[in-house]
């Protein structure tokens, strides 16, 4: 009789475990990351940090998601992406063939979303008389040839996308030993230029359109230079219109690169940024959206006095 008494207890205990397991499984499914909820870390090129901060804030207001931004230099972002520190990155370039091959070996096809065009801005101290600069003079200076109007070029970081962009433009692999300065962030570049005449800072345009509270007063102490291309005769400032018409010579496209390998929050965020709401955020930021947001015009037959 004792042996028979054990069986019902065992069956009841097994049934309890199954029910508990089901409940736990259901809970895990509810907390599971989807394209519109969950938590994810996104690697961001520091030179375009402000626009991504804005996109994250708006996205989180719409959806039950938490996006953690990790802003670094371009080289650090790519290194972290390859080493699986995070599987989503925002860059001012696409992956190279060599970088894509690394993901091919991992059986992952990166999804690339083009969402905006940015400009690299050249800035100087407000007291400087000249508001114009020829790109040929900047390139010559980077090749180690002194220029009377340029005391030095100031970059945010030796590993940044702005350094890589300008080096590619000049056709050099390393910066000259003299006349090139670098800090850690765009904010430090802007502050240094505001305090030193004759220096030309190289920063992401978004930092000037959307300065933080502390930086607003500092930005007032600098001026944005109009740039002449290597083959043109006219000087153009980095405005939305000039970037759209291809007149500003230091424009660059921005991409979200998703290497999650699944339909996760990265895909949802990229779709949002490239969609109607995200493109409105880009337009408001001063950058050029890849798609112009639609405008709804309401035609009225009568004029009403709305102030009553």
Percentage of residues in strands: 15-25%
| Structural class by helix and strand composition | alpha/beta
Q: Span from first to last CA?
A: 90 Å
Q: What is the total domain count?
A: 2
Overall shape: it is globular
Report the count of strand segments: 13
Q: List the secondary-structure elements in sequence, H or E.
A: HEHEHEHEEHEHEHEHHEEEHEHHE
- CATH fold annotation of the largest domain: D-Maltodextrin-Binding Protein, domain 2
Task: Calculate Rg over CA atoms.
Answer: 26 Å
Number of H- or I-type helical stretches: 12
Q: Determine and state the CATH class of the largest domain.
A: Alpha Beta
The CATH architecture of the largest domain comes to 3-Layer(aba) Sandwich
* Main beta-sheet annotation: 10 strands, mixed
Spans of at least 5 consecutive residues whose pLDDT stays below 50 are: 1-30
**Which homologous superfamily in CATH is the superfamily of the largest domain?**
Periplasmic binding protein-like II
Helix content: 40-55%
What's the overall average pLDDT, rounded? 86
């Amino acid at each position: 009789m004792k042996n028979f008494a054990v069986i019902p207890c065992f069956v009841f205990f097994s049934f309890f475990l199954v029910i508990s397991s089901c409940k736990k499984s259901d809970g895990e499914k509810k907390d599971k990351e989807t394209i519109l909820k969950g938590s994810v870390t996104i690697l961001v090129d520091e030179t375009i940090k402000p626009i991504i901060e804005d996109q994250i804030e708006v996205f989180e207001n719409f959806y039950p998601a938490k996006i953690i931004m990790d802003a670094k230099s371009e080289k650090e972002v790519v290194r972290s992406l390859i080493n699986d520190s995070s599987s989503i990155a925002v860059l001012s370039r696409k992956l190279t063939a060599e970088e894509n091959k690394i993901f091919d070996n991992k059986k992952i096809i990166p999804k690339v979303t083009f969402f905006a065009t940015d400009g690299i801005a050249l800035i100087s101290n407000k007291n400087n008389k000249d508001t114009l600069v020829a790109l040929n003079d900047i390139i010559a200076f980077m090749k180690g040839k002194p220029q009377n109007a340029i005391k030095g070029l100031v970059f945010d970081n030796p590993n940044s996308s702005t350094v890589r962009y300008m080096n590619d433009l000049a056709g050099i692999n390393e910066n000259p030993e003299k006349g090139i300065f670098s800090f850690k962030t765009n904010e430090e570049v802007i502050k240094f230029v505001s305090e030193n005449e004759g220096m030309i800072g190289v920063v992401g345009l978004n930092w000037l359109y959307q300065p933080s509270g502390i930086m607003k007063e500092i930005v007032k102490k600098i001026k944005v230079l109009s740039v002449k291309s290597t083959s043109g005769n006219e000087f153009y400032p980095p405005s939305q219109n000039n970037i759209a018409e291809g007149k500003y010579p230091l424009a660059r496209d921005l991409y979200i690169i998703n290497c999650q390998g699944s339909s996760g929050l990265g895909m949802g965020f990229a779709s949002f940024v490239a969609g109607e709401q995200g493109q409105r955020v880009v337009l408001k930021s001063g950058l050029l959206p890849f798609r112009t947001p639609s405008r709804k015009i309401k035609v009225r037959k009568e004029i009403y006095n709305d102030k009553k």
